[in-house]
Structure formats: C-alpha cells, structure tokens
Amino acid sequence: MSRDITIRDRWRMILGHEREHMQPRAARAVRALDELYGSGHGEGSRTPSAGGGQEQAFPTVREWRDEIEALFGASVFEEVAGRAAAAGRIGALLELDPAQVTPSIELLEQVLSLKGGLGEGHLGRLRALIRRVVDELVRELAVRVRPALIGATGARATRRPTRTLHLPRTVAANLARVREVDGEPRLVPERLYFRQKNRRQMDWHVVLVVDVSGSMEPSVIYSAMMAAILSAVPWISVKFVTFSTEIVDLSDHASDPLALLLEVAVGGGTHIAKALRYARGLAVVPQRTIVLCVTDFEEGYAPEALVAEVRALVESGVTCLGLAALDDRGAPRYHVQIAEMVASAGMPVAALSPLELARWVGEKIR
C-alpha cells in the first residue's frame, strides 16, 4: 500500500470506521476495495449506517482495474482480481492476466461455472486463463503424485548413472581403494553404482468413472487432473467416463484436463449402477484393470442393482475402489449405508487425496 496513506487511515480502512475523516487518497482506496470486500468484512468495508450510502459505484470493471492499479500497482490488482474472481465476480475473470494469476481450485471452479453462459468471444478470452490454471495445478500435483506411480527407488544396483547413488554397493566394490589422507582413511571410489527404479513391465488399465451430478465439481476437477497424470505413465491406459443418469465417455480427452473440463456438464441425477455396467464393458483384461468410481453414493435408483454391478466387476477380476472425495481439502461425504453395501460386495470406499490415491494405484500395479 502506498506510503502516502497514513497509519491512522490504514487502521480506519482495516476497522471499517470513520470514513468521513479519511484523506482523499485513502478514501479512493476504500472505495476501490469496497468493490471486492463489501460491507463489514475488513479492508475498505463500508461503515454500517441506518440509511443507504451516497457513494458512487464503479460503472465498469475496467475503471475499477485502473483505480486499483493507480493506487497499488498492477501486481496488487492481479491478487485482488484473483480473489474477486474466486468470489464469483465475472468481470474480474475477464480482466485477469493468465501469466500473473495464482492458480487455485476455487478460481478454476468459478471459471468453469461460466463456460455455458458466455459467448465464444468471452470464452475464447478465458481459455488462456483456464489452460494456465489447469496446467499449473497438474504440474504441482504431478510433483507429489508421479513418484508413487512410476516406482520407488529399489535395491537393485546398476552402473548406469541415475540420480541416486547406491552407497552400500559402491563402498563394497571400492574397499581396496581406501587411502590414508592426513592420517584419516578416505575412500576414493573407482566404480560407482546407482539405485535402479522398479518399473512395471506389463500394461494396466484404469477406468475413472466420475459422478457429475449435483455438487461434485471439485471432485470432477481433481479427477480430470489425475486422469492426465495417470495418462502420462507409459504402462497405464486411462478411460474417463462421466455419469449422471446418462453416460458420457470422454476417454479421447483423458490426457487433456482442459478439454475434459470444458466438455463436462455438472448436474442431473445419479445412476451409479448404469455407469459401472458401462465400465465393465471397458474391462478387456479384467485382471489388469482398476475401476475408480468417484461419487457420493447417493444412488437415485435401486441400490440392489448397484451392488449386483459391483459384484459382477469384482468376480470378473477387476480391482475396484470407491472414492468419496478426490480433493485434498474434501472431507468424506457419501451415503454411508450404500457405501457399506458396495464395500461388502468387494468395492472398498475411501476418501483419498490425490497423493494417497496414487500410492494406492501404485501398490496395486506393482
């Protein structure tokens, strides 16, 4: 914040009181911040009064942007606009610079919620923003997830250089090279050995069956990002199937989370049994197939049919897992009774973060 706003006025802004006593520049800052923070919520909040205020609102988001940049600078505007966008301000979304925005799940949810209500011109402006947010979130997630999928560093030693030295084998192979330096024994290795990663040699197939009914959007976002990460592992093929009461197979886009998220339409009822029946048809090699069902298990049809589909999958040799949440922040949220029924039929139900899911998949495909 500019130094020509006094300490006293800064406290007035924080507390939201005595606006009438502020210096002109502080009053401008209050008015600009009001556009984001609103009444009674901290910086720039309006002082409660018995009647309506007399301040003029900003006519356009562009004028609001110009005022924020003039007062605080362009970098601060990107932070403020990002918060405004995450809070649902459509105009702020269109003003964000994709290269400067801080990616978050909340921001991505807000952008995606607009995709059906914007013209192609506005949607085209948002594509760069969506791509930037999705790519950065996938990159951050992949750093944590991929080691669990690709394989832990194993005990096998190799002369081929890798990132990790196999210290016991190197020491054992070079004991004859111990020399005394300054009265202390020093190992001067001639041959180096490295740890070799354990690699899976046979292909596996993962079918993500994702509930897109109701309030499942955060889980849909994480499912799309996990599909992209799984697709990058050479020995894993990925199918991506969404369902409400209808089935939409988006497997052609499994490696492209942006395309997936732009295609997915969240809403409608829930028919999990129908989705699992479709997934069973995709299990060409059941013994090397994992079906991950992302849902809240609020089945809209007879639960007996759902249990029968789970049993059919398990008896064919498919490994099944029900995911109540695929969100690092998500608490378990699912229909307990139906989850217990499918668990007893052979599909365990868990609320896993993406990293925990990757570890689970990694254990199954070893």
* Shape by Cα distribution: flat
Beta-strand residue percentage: 5-15%
Widest beta sheet: strand line-up: 7-6-5-8-9-10
Contiguous uncertain segments of 5+ residues: 39-57
Q: Tell me how many strands there are.
A: 10
Rg is 28 Å
User: Total number of helical segments?
Assistant: 14
Question: How would a textbook summarize the main sheet?
Answer: 6 strands, mixed
User: Could you state the order of secondary-structure elements as H and E?
Assistant: HHHHHHHEHEEEEHEEHHEHEHEH
Helix content: 40-55%
- Which structural class matches the secondary elements? alpha/beta
- Report, as a whole number of angstroms, the end-to-end distance: 54 Å
Question: What would the average pLDDT be, to the nearest integer?
Answer: 77
Task: Write a structural description.
The structure is a single chain. With about 375 residues, this protein is α/β, with parallel strands linked by helices. It is about 45% helix and about 15% strand. The protein has 14 helices and ten strands. It has helices spanning about 5-15, 25-35, 60-70, 75-85, 90-95, 105-115, 120-150, 165-175, 215-230, 255-265, 270-280, 305-315, 335-345, 355-365; strands spanning about 155-160, 180, 185, 195, 205-210, 235-245, 245-250, 290-295, 320-325, 350. The strands form three sheets. It has a six-stranded mixed β-sheet, with helices on both faces. Helix 6 runs antiparallel to helix 7 (about 120-150). The protein is flat and about 80 Å long. About 35% of the residues are buried. The model is unreliable at about 40-55 (pLDDT under 50).
